[in-house]
Specification:
It contains nine helices and ten strands. The strands form two sheets. A seven-stranded parallel beta sheet has the order 1-10-9-6-2-3-5, sandwiched between helices. The protein is α/β, with parallel strands linked by helices. 32% of the residues lie in helices and 16% in strands. It has a single domain, classed as Rossmann fold, CATH 3.40.50. The longest helix is centred in the first third of the chain and has 16 residues. Its EC number is 3.5.99.6. Catalyzes the reversible isomerization-deamination of glucosamine 6-phosphate (GlcN6P) to form fructose 6-phosphate (Fru6P) and ammonium ion. Pathway: Amino-sugar metabolism; N-acetylneuraminate degradation; D-fructose 6-phosphate from N-acetylneuraminate: step 5/5.
Length: 264
């Protein structure tokens, strides 16, 4: 796992956009996340597209998750959210942006179809992730199987409370979702997780320095051969070895010159 600490959340967004841009230029299959953390990164990518620096025309994208029961035109459905915040502003064809069908009367079958669609597309090249305050990624709540695939899940009350800010009240937040599983996420070739703010500091500490365990689903990144975690100073505040991570980052250019060895 490579950990990069940046001074501010704005710096996190720029660094994340740098990483994503390298994949975009190769026409990658992107795994997109919603929520508040990735928004600044999407805005930076849109800026680069508007400046003529990037084209997404050869890319395709898969969303990480979707609420069950919300129509796709609902403003808080992830189908609508990702278009409003990102893909409507770039040149990726809309038909190449796929998400789980939370309106299907058989959500289990919808989850299986979505998993197969990812496989048939050749897998995801880079999966963008955030992390919840309880350590969830996607909607894989604490206790999720580390080998799980796309499936129906019930949200933890803490996640419902965290997401209530997007709705008029917590009572309006759907409690069931379709989400890529931890096994599905691990199948992506590159994982890119972003975290900003002091509220994410405990989750960052547990995912980076804690044991790999189901009670912190994000800790599964420790098992991935190519995972990049980018955090701001506030989110890094609980890390025991943050000075080492900074040191490793400063030496990156040296070990890249030795053939790209990942020593972090």
């Amino acid at each position: 796992m490579e950990l990069i600490i940046r001074p501010t959340s704005a710096d996190v967004a720029v660094t994340a956009a740098d990483v994503l841009a390298e994949h975009v230029r190769r026409g990658a299959t992107l795994g997109l996340a919603t929520g508040s953390t990735p928004v600044a990164t999407y805005q930076e990518l849109i800026r680069r597209y508007d400046a003529g620096e990037l084209s997404f025309a050869q890319c395709r994208a898969f969303l990480l998750d979707e609420y069950v029961g919300l129509p796709r035109d609902h403003e808080q459905s992830y189908y609508r959210t990702i278009r409003r915040e990102f893909t409507e502003h770039i040149d990726i064809p809309d038909a190449r942006v796929q998400s789980p069908d939370g309106t299907d009367p058989n959500p289990t079958a919808a989850a299986d179809r979505y998993e197969m669609a990812i496989v048939e597309a050749g897998g995801i090249d880079i999966q963008l992730l955030g992390v919840g305050t309880n350590g969830h990624i996607g909607f894989n709540e604490p206790g999720s199987s580390l080998a799980s695939h796309t499936r129906l899940k019930t949200l933890h009350p803490q996640t419902v409370a965290d997401n209530a800010r997007f709705f008029d009240s917590a009572d309006e937040v759907p409690i069931h979702v379709l989400t890529q599983g931890l096994g599905t996420i691990r199948n992506a070739r590159h994982l890119l997780l972003l975290a900003t703010g002091e509220g994410k500091a405990d989750a960052v500490r547990r995912l980076v320095e804690g044991p790999v365990a189901a009670f912190c689903p994000a800790s599964v990144l420790q098992l991935h051969e190519f995972a990049t975690v980018i955090v701001d100073e506030a989110a890094a505040s609980d890390l025991q070895y943050k000075e080492y991570y900074r040191f490793a980052e400063t030496k990156k250019s040296q070990w890249q010159g030795w053939g790209g060895w990942n020593l972090a």
